[in-house]
Amino acid sequence: MYKVLKTEGRAKRAVMETVHGTIQTPVFMNVGTVAAIKGAVSTDDLHDIGTQVQLSNTYHLHVRTGDKTIKELGGLHKFMVWDRPILTDSGGFQVFSLRGLRKIKEEGVYFQSHIDGHKIFMGPEESMQIQSNLGSTIAMAFDECPSSKADRKYVTDSVNRTTRWLARCKTEMARLNGLEDTINKNQLLFGINQGAIYEDIRIEHAKRIAEMDLDGYAVGGLAVGESHEEMYHILEETVPYLPQDKPTYLMGVGTPANILEGVERGIDFFDCVYPSRNGRHGHVYTDHGKLNLFNQKYEKDMRPIEEGCGCPACRTYSRAYIRHLLKAKEMLGMRLCVLHNLYFYNHMMEEIRDALDAGDFAGYKKRKLEGMEAGE
Which reaction does it catalyse (predicted)? Predict the structure, then answer.
């Protein structure tokens, strides 16, 4: 199912076979929270820009449209017309992000919907049931994501509960995959390592979940307030204790530099809202750093966002025109910036894989970082 093809230091070049197709890693997963990439990006666009995996959100699809309705309609792949792998996160991050609207107990979490305030309960079993209804390729275990600033006692108690929840997720996933009417009976389960920025808690938790023989392992609870240096340190200390023959996923990270550093420390899977969110605000990524297309200096700039870029925006349109669209609040401006950014991320992952294949990841990383830091 998952095979490491090559290594360079801790960096891994691997391939993962799934029921919905093959994933070449390292890989960036495009974030489509409610079964769509924000910025009017279609499934055809996703194919065009080289997307391998699309990520959707359990909590958001549960509260809007509803997982039971999506199951009736044939599951998430059929619903959004996507024929490649989908990863669904478990709703655990909403435990962190909706902290004013939730109460955490041993059985699970009591929420108020951020849409209409109605009461929702989600525990490990409910999260697995929702993800099974969606029929995603990879389901994430239900966890709590403690703040990186939380005190040691809180983090210890939280991580212990997350481990107990993981055991419940595994049991429930096995039950659901055996049911007659389950859409994807080959749904995979990834566990999540937590522990804030306490390296000893992280390492101990990594050892405990490694023993549970899951389909993959994620490092969660980073990029939530700690410094980049703290994040890299935690990865250096923790990733070696996760199984090397299973995929490793760094959740919600990050910038192009974060991804390069993550790959160097043994990460296979990444996801982040940055490319689409920044694109919607006219901020675009290039090999020479990030550009703000709202800047006056691009008003008469007839070059593409990036010379030589094969994305749908750069193949046809100029910086001047895209800036005009953004200033005029035309949706096409946002859409072109989002397409460019997602292409940039997916193409960068392709370059990373090629560099690992050639045994030159260290050289590639150095050149890429230097170029992005130098600016135009």
Answer: 7-aminomethyl-7-carbaguanine + guanosine(34) in tRNA = 7-aminomethyl-7-carbaguanosine(34) in tRNA + guanine
